[in-house]
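B., you asked whether I could sanity-check this one before it goes into the benchmark set. Here's the sequence:
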Amino acid sequence: MKLSLLLLGLGVVMMAGCAAETASSEDADSTEDELRRYEDSPFERPEVGLVSFPGSYCTGTLIGPRTVLTAAHCTDFSSTIAAPSQPPLGHFVVVEPGTGRRVKHPFHRYRADAGMLNVKFDIAVIQLDVAVGSSLATPATIAEDWPRERLTVYGFGRYGAKCRESDPTPTKRKTTVPPSFPYVRATTCPGDSGGPYFRGTSNEIVATVKGDGLGLEWVGDAVQHRDWIMKRRGESERGVLNAD
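And here's what the prediction gave me:
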C-alpha cells in the first residue's frame, strides 16, 4: 500500500467494485497480525527493489533490464513522461547482493492504464533511464496461469502488529500466503504496494500487491493482464513507452 491518502478512497472503491470471496480455511483462524510476521530477506530476490517517489515509496520488480512492474495507485493511476532535462519522476533502488549497497536507477517515464473501478488491474510499468546490470539482478517473468502452491510476497513496507513497525531505511521482507488470493485476511502493509507475489520459490510473478480493502487483501492480477504487461515491457525495453 502506498504511503498516501489515496489508500482510504481506494479501499472503498475496491469493496464497491467486487464482492469478497470466502477466505481459505487455512487462514480462517489466523489473526491479521500473525500474517504480518514477515521474515527479513534483504539479499533475496535482488530484482525486487524500492520504487521511490518524492514524498512516498512503493515496491517494484524488474521484469526487463530497464522495466519495472509496480502498482498503478503508486503513480496515482496516471501515465507520465518527463523531459530528460527535468528531474526524474523517481528512482528504482536495487540492493546489491552480498554488500547491501543500494544502487539508484532514475526514471522519467511510467504508464498505468488501470482504472480504479477495474478491481484486479492495479498495475503500472516504469521505464528506467538505463538498464539494471545483470550483475545486480535478473529480471523476473510473468506467470501464464494461477498456481496451486503457496505464493511468496516481498515488500519494503511496514510490518508487525497493525503495521506499526518500520525501519529508518526500508528493508525488504517476505512472507508466504495461500493461492486463494485475492481475497484473504490482510497481509501487506503501507510501502508494500506493487510488490510481487511469486509462484512458490520461482521467479514467476502471478500478482502485485494492491492493498487492504477494509480487512481483505486485494491484488493486481498479473496473470489475467499478462498480455498488457508484456506489450508494455516490449515498449519500455525499446525506449518507446508512451503515456497513452
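One thing to flag: Residues 1-35 have pLDDT under 50 and may be disordered. Otherwise nothing jumped out at me.
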